[in-house]
Structures are given as structure tokens and as C-alpha cells.
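Trying the structure run again after the queue cleared.
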Amino acid sequence: MKLIVITPSSTIEDEHYILGKMLDMGLTTLHVRKPKLSKRELSIYLNGFTKSQQKKIILHIHYGLLWDFHLKGVHVSKRQRKKKIKFAMRKAILYLRRGNFQIGASCESFQSLDDLYKDFDYIFIYPVFPGLNGHLPGINMGSMKKILPSYPEKVIAKGGTTPDNIGIAHKLGFSGVAFQEYLWDKPEPLVSFQKILDTFREEGLTLE
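Done. C-alpha cells:
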């Protein structure tokens, strides 16, 4: 089962050390979501990781940095997807210059999931669980269990994810879970991350 961590939007103290430890502890995919950083600032940020760690990183902005760093891929926003011709050209150029990489997107409904499934390597759907910030799921769990088998291997649960619902996400048919607020709203993110790893082992799930 895929385990994904999304960075805090704003930089926190010892961030590279914390994220580097997570990657070294077994995290296979790190989403770098830094909406306020310029391309130059994001380049400097990426240089704070080792070459092997960079290979596990997915970017949310400044996709051209995929040419400068050997990253795992890019995550495309709804706003970018709306510019269909521009996005298709950029995607073709990236594949031509860089070769194979992952490309993903997010959605909030099964209708959107149906539209995205064939064109992306993975899709975040959210919110799946009640959020720590009060957000409520927009999709009924019974519906998820019926519909998700039709979309194998690509759909990632996001929103309200905690160690307590990793097993639930697996049983519902999700191919992975993404963590953000659970980690960064806590005083010791590495302790929280270890709880996630422990739960994966307890549930008999292999990290992908």
C-alpha cells in the first residue's frame, strides 16, 4: 500500500532533517507542496535533500525543475488542468526531455475521478475521513467500497488520515494513504510518522 507524506505549506524548524529522516525510515513518496516559493527558492529547497531522497519527491509547482533534478514526478492542480492545450504541450515536452516520471492529480468526487483515472498515474480523493480541522467527508463510505474496485491501483485517500484509519482505507479499496495535517499539527512529527509505520506493519501492509 502506498504511503505518501505532503510537506507543510510553510517551512518549519528542522524541516529538511525531519523529512530526510522520514525518507530514510522508509517513506517512498514525498509531495513537496510549497505554494509561496519562487522557482529559485524551490530549487534551493530541493538541494537540501540528497540525490537518493530527491528521487522520491513529487512537485506541486514549477514543473520545469523536473529537468534540473531527478525527481519522482509532478502533481497537477485543477487550475493547471483547465488549461488543456498548454498542459498537454508541457506534459509532452517534459516526457520528451526527461523520460518517464509520475504525474498525478486530486479530486473531490467520483465523477471527477472517472474523468481523471485514465490520464494520471495516481489520484488523491478527499476528504475521505473527518478532518482534524473540522472538514467532513464528502463521500459516503458505503459508496466508496462499491465504487473503488472499478478504479484499481491509483486512488489515494487524503483528508483526515490517521494511523487509526489506515486499515479502513485498505479495506475500502484505496491503494494508498496521504498524510499532512496529522503530522504537522503535532509537536513531534517523527514520533507521529513512526506510529504510521508501526500501523502499516500491524495491518500486514507492505510499503509501496
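Residues 14 and 20 are 10 Å apart (CA to CA). Worth checking whether this holds up in the mutant runs.
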